[in-house]
Design a protein that fits this description.
This protein has 264 residues and is α/β, with parallel strands linked by helices. The protein contains six helices and twelve strands. Strands 5-4-3-2-1-12-7-6 form an eight-stranded parallel beta sheet, with helices on one face. Helix 2 links the parallel strand 3 and strand 4. Helix 2 crosses helix 3. The chain starts with a strand and ends in a 6-residue tail after the last strand.
Length: 264
């Protein structure tokens, strides 16, 4: 199967990675509404992507009411039939009721699967049924997929967890995209990077105005229990997984989303 290749970028400057191997650009943020682009920046990226004859997808995170209002401003500048990845059901409801000319895509935050790297410590001792459970997603639940398709959600994004992922029970009516190489473990509204470069704020814990410190600092967390190096970027923990199992290579996944940098 020939798969579409999409470049995922979080900032306009990373259009420098757009080469002939990519047919599509994902732009936006999945994890923090404060990192969403301005309408002006979005227009500029769309203009450049269109100039290079590529398809475009806007990526949106889980949001507060203020974040939802910002997402609405972004969706107002999107051309008809543009894909919008949603990771918040409130964003989907807004697409359905106010922007029905756009194409909703289920984000990977709403594709449920066990993500913790500690699974690898006991994976080889798991009985087959338990192993199958740890590799399965909510996309294998018939009623859930029926809901997606009835609401014209025809594509879902997937992570590439260390234990592998089984999509054999996902109906082929639902198109699948795979994120590589960065998989996320967990995310929170509480940003652990806020004020990290201000010595006078040491020891202060709380919610502070966003200085986008995560654009400048990345933290690496090494613990033998985790079996792999964890990457903390802003409010989200990632790890890097460059291995794609053969069964995924032969599955119905028809798009690969590639992040040359941590997409956050």
């Amino acid at each position: 199967m020939e798969r579409e290749r999409a470049l995922f970028i979080a900032v306009p400057e990373n259009l420098k990675y757009l080469t002939d191997e990519y047919q599509r650009v994902y732009f936006g943020d999945e994890f923090c509404e404060r990192l969403l682009p301005s309408p002006k920046a979005l227009k500029e990226v769309i203009l450049e992507v269109t100039r290079q004859s590529r398809a475009f997808t806007l990526v949106t995170p889980y949001v507060t009411q203020a974040g939802l209002e910002h997402v609405e401003k972004l969706m107002k500048v999107l051309p008809e039939e543009t894909e919008v990845v949603f990771n918040d059901w409130g964003v989907f409801r807004t697409i359905k009721t106010r922007f029905s000319h756009l194409v909703p895509v289920l984000g990977r935050l709403l594709t449920k699967i066990k993500r913790g790297p500690r699974i690898m410590n006991f994976l080889d001792r798991m009985p087959p049924d338990a192993l199958r459970h740890l590799r399965s997603t909510n996309l294998g639940v018939p009623r859930y997929v029926q809901f997606l398709l009835e609401n014209k959600i025809m594509r879902a994004d997937l992570d590439n967890p260390l234990q592998g992922i089984d999509v054999s029970d996902v109906p082929r009516d639902l198109h699948l995209s795979l994120h590589i190489p960065f998989a996320y473990v967990t995310t929170t509204r509480f940003c652990l990077v806020a004020n990290c470069d201000k010595p006078d704020k040491k020891g202060f814990i709380g919610v502070f105005p966003c200085g986008r410190e995560c654009r400048n600092y990345t933290f690496y967390l090494d613990n033998p229990v985790m079996t792999t190096l964890l990457i903390r970027r802003g409010n989200t923990i990632f790890y890097k997984n460059t291995s794609v199992p053969q069964e995924l290579r032969e599955s119905q996944i028809d798009r690969v989303i590639i992040s040359p940098e941590i997409p956050h």
